[in-house]
Design a protein that fits this description.
This protein is α/β, with parallel strands linked by helices. It contains 15 helices and 10 strands. Helices cover 43% and strands 12% of the residues.
Length: 364
């Protein structure tokens, strides 16, 4: 049997590459061939702004700022994405097909779209690809697909989603909010399954982790979000004489350009992780690393926390939030988490997800 995966085509996000790898590895247990179809032509270079005469004039008048931004920001982004791309090249079987061919449907028995936020209405459209319109209806499957939002406001977009979801044979989503959204759109109840990264045990992830060359064994708190850490994180670091490593700090070249394998290692060896990243939460749970979820609740910004909310409810960690700089837990409670139920919950969810995949792929 041959199966193709359709997911977000990006090399700028650790979680996206890790979920792609995990789904491929898990599916390979049951089918002979698993390919990822890379349909978006972006290579590893970050996107540059669309040039027009106003932007050109602005760059000329502020050429020093333009040069500094290019040298210290764009170049670092290129190196970061190149390092992430190396993970894809090494671990993921990718077929580059920038314009989905009409005969692609004939090459595979099934197509699986997911996981990650493949159905986020705020992302680039690519509706034909993300809803598998090029494939026979009976071949269309979603696994742990995510909307990233709780509602679709635009009437035109809502109709597109409604029409495309109706034509999909098997649908599963990653969040409870996504299941409710689909029920509201097409009146259909769909299962909520775990992200592919949870389908692999801790031991499998330890096989790919890699220690950064610059790391010398010191204790640290790892942060992975935009903005400054809260006073809670700073106070814990100060009390314990730990460093704070911020993966989004462009002033720290080594950290900002970390490889995917180093991302896993840094979470595994941290004393504490503070993040607003879904996959940083997942790997903290899998590696049994204490963590906190940073929720800024910004006004005017779409609420994209539903994916983390479902994860926290699944493992019973609803109290691990920093909301607007405040956390209800004491320092002792923050640093000493109970991970005793993680393995049993993970095994249960793997069984549920396996049953769904076997049914969708018509496997005995």
């Amino acid at each position: 049997m041959k199966v193709a995966i359709i997911t977000l085509c990006v090399n700028n996000n650790y979680g996206n590459r890790l979920q792609n790898y995990a789904l491929q590895k898990f599916l390979s247990i049951y089918v002979e061939t698993v390919d990822t179809i890379w349909f978006e032509k972006n290579h590893y270079l970050p996107e540059l702004p669309t040039w027009n005469w106003k932007l050109i004039l602005k760059c000329i008048l502020r050429w020093k700022n333009t040069y500094i931004n290019f040298k210290y920001n764009y170049v670092k982004d290129c190196i970061r994405e190149y390092n992430i791309k190396k993970f894809s090249n090494k671990y993921i079987k990718i077929k580059y097909d920038y314009k989905i061919r009409n005969n692609l449907n004939e090459e595979y028995d099934y197509f699986i779209v997911g996981s990650d936020q493949v159905w986020n209405p705020h992302y680039k459209q690519y509706y034909d690809e993300k809803f598998l319109k090029f494939a026979d209806k009976k071949k269309r499957i979603s696994y742990a697909a995510s909307f990233g939002v709780t509602d679709i406001d635009n009437i035109k977009t809502k109709k597109i989603f409604k029409d495309n979801l109706t034509d999909m044979e098997y649908i599963s989503v990653r969040e409870v909010a996504g299941a409710k959204l689909i029920e509201n759109l097409i009146g259909r109840e769909v299962p909520v399954v775990v992200d592919p990264t949870i389908l692999l045990p801790k031991e499998e992830w330890k096989k790919i982790k890699m220690a950064p060359e610059w790391y010398n064994g010191e204790k640290y708190i790892l942060t992975y979000f935009l903005g400054n850490p809260s006073s809670i994180i700073e106070n814990i670091a100060k009390k314990n004489n730990w460093k704070i490593y911020n993966l989004m700090d462009k002033n720290n070249f080594d950290l900002y350009t970390s490889r995917v394998e180093e991302f896993v290692y840094l979470i595994d060896h941290a004393q504490l992780v503070a993040t607003d990243s879904f996959h940083a939460c997942v790997f903290s749970i899998l590696m049994n690393t204490p963590f906190l979820v940073v929720n800024r609740q910004q006004k005017g910004v779409a609420d994209m926390t539903s994916r983390i909310d479902t994860l926290m409810e699944l493992f019973g960690y609803q109290d691990r939030y920093i909301i607007n700089g405040e956390c209800k837990l004491s320092d002792e409670e923050i640093l000493h988490m109970d991970f005793s139920n993680v393995k049993s919950i993970q095994e249960r969810e793997i069984a549920r997800s396996t049953a769904y995949i076997k049914k969708a792929l018509n496997l005995k």
